[in-house]
C-alpha cells in the first residue's frame, strides 16, 4: 500500500498537491485554516482533519504548503509535540535562513525535516515538466522519494536545509530578469504600433537561441576567465547598450527596467575589462560593490 500523507494548507498549490496524491492512490489527510477549502478534496476521498494536531498525527509524512514562513509557525507550533518520528516537508516558499530555522525547530521536536522549492505553478503539479528542489534530511528524502515524485520530479540538493530555498530564489531571479527583458521588448514594439502577438514568436526564438549563455557564462565563471571564447566584447556591448536606452527614450518607453545594467558595464570597461565578455560583471555583484 502507498504511504499516507497529510497536507497542511489548501491554497492553490496545496490543493494541487493533495489532488495529485489522491489521484495516485495515497491515503491523504487535509487541513486548512479556513475549513471550507477541504470540501472538494473530501469529496474526492481525502480525510478531513479537525485541527492541525489531528492532521500531523494522521500520517508519518506531513507536507506543509502555506503562504509564508510566519504562517507555517502559526499553524504548526500548537502541534509541535505531535511531530516526533515524522517527516516534515515544508513546501512553503521562504529564504534559506527561514529553512534553517525550521530545520532546527523540527529537529528539536524530533521530526526529520526537508525544505522544498516548487518549480511549477499549480496546474503543472503531477505532470511532466514540474520539478521540486529538496534539501535537508537524506533519510526523509530516501524514505519518501516515491511519494514526492507523484507531485513532480524530485531533485535532492544535499543536507544543508537552506539550499533548496537558495536555488529556488536563484531560478526565480533568473526568470524575473527574463520577464523584465520581455516586457521592455514588448513595450518598444507596441509603442510602434506592432501587436505584441506578432512580435512574440521572434522574441521567443531569439531568447531560446541566447539561453546557452547560462552554460558559456558558467564556464567562464568557474575558470575565472572572462575572456574565454569571447565573441562579443564587453566594450562593444557597453557602447550598444547606451543606444538601447536612447531608443527607448526616443520611443517614449521608460528605460528603467534595462537601465541598471548600464553603469555595471561601464565600470567593467573603465576597470580595463573591455576586451572580455559581459560575464565579468559578476565580479561587481559578488563583492557587493555594485550597491
Ligand atoms: P494561496 O494564497 O492560494 O494559499 C495560501 C494558504 O496559506 C491558504 O491555505 C491559507 O489559508 C494559508 N494561510 C495563510 N496564512 C495563514 C496563517 N497565518 N495560518 C494558517 N494558514 C495560513 O497560496 P498558494 O497555494 O499559491 O502558495 C502556497 C505556497 O506555495 C507559497 O509559499 C507559494 O510561494 C508557494 N508556491 C506557489 C506557487 C504558485 O504558483 N501558486 C508556485 C511555487 C510555489 P486560508 O485558506 O485559511 O486563507
UniProtKB/TrEMBL annotation:
What InterPro entries does the entry give?
A: 6PGD_dom2, 6PGDH_NADP-bd, HIBADH-related, HIBADH-related_NP60_sf, NAD(P)-bd_dom_sf, RedAm-like_C
UniProtKB keywords: Oxidoreductase, Signal
Per UniProt, residues of the 6-phosphogluconate dehydrogenase NADP-binding domain are 5-153
**Coiled-coil intervals, chain numbering:** none
Which superkingdom does the taxonomy of this entry point to? Answer: Bacteria
Citing just one GO molecular function, the answer is: NADP binding
The chain positions of domain NADPH-dependent reductive aminase-like C-terminal read 160-286
Signal peptide feature range: 1-18
Task: Reply yes or no: does the keyword Oxidoreductase apply.
Answer: yes
For this chain, the family text in UniProt reads: Belongs to the HIBADH-related family.
Protein name in UniProt: 3-hydroxyisobutyrate dehydrogenase-like beta-hydroxyacid dehydrogenase
- Species in which this protein is naturally found: Prauserella shujinwangii
Amino acid at each position: 500500500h502507498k504511504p499516507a500523507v497529510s497536507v497542511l494548507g489548501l491554497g492553490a498549490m496545496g490543493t494541487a498537491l493533495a489532488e495529485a496524491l489522491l489521484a495516485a492512490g495515497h491515503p491523504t489527510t487535509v487541513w486548512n485554516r479556513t475549513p471550507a477549502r477541504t470540501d472538494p478534496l473530501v469529496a474526492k476521498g481525502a480525510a478531513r482533519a479537525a485541527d492541525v494536531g489531528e492532521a500531523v498525527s494522521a500520517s508519518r509524512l506531513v507536507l506543509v504548503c502555506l503562504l509564508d514562513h510566519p504562517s507555517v509557525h502559526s499553524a504548526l507550533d500548537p502541534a509541535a509535540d505531535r511531530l516526533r518520528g515524522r517527516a516534515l516537508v515544508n513546501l512553503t516558499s521562504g529564504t534559506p535562513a527561514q529553512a534553517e530555522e525550521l530545520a532546527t525547530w523540527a529537529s528539536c521536536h524530533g521530526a526529520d525535516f526537508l525544505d522544498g522549492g516548487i518549480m511549477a505553478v499549480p496546474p503543472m503539479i503531477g505532470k511532466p515538466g514540474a520539478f521540486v528542489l529538496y534539501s535537508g534530511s537524506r533519510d526523509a528524502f530516501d524514505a519518501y522519494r516515491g511519494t514526492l515524485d507523484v507531485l513532480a520530479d524530485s531533485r535532492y540538493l544535499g543536507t544543508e536545509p537552506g539550499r533548496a530555498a537558495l536555488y529556488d530564489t536563484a531560478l526565480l531571479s533568473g526568470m524575473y530578469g527574463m520577464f523584465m527583458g520581455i516586457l521592455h521588448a514588448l513595450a518598444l514594439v507596441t509603442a510602434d504600433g506592432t501587436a505584441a502577438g506578432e512580435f512574440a514568436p521572434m522574441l521567443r526564438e531569439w531568447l531560446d537561441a541566447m539561453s546557452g549563455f547560462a552554460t558559456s557564462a558558467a564556464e567562464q565563471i568557474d575558470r575565472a576567465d572572462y575572456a574565454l571564447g569571447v565573441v562579443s566584447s564587453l566594450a562593444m556591448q557597453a557602447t550598444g547598450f547606451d543606444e538601447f536606452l536612447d531608443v527607448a527614450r526616443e520611443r517614449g518607453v521608460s528605460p528603467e527596467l534595462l537601465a541598471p545594467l548600464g553603469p555595471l558595464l561601464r565600470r567593467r570597461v573603465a576597470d580595463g575589462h573591455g576586451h572580455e565578455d559581459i560575464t565579468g560583471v559578476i565580479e561587481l555583484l559578488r563583492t557587493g560593490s555594485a550597491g
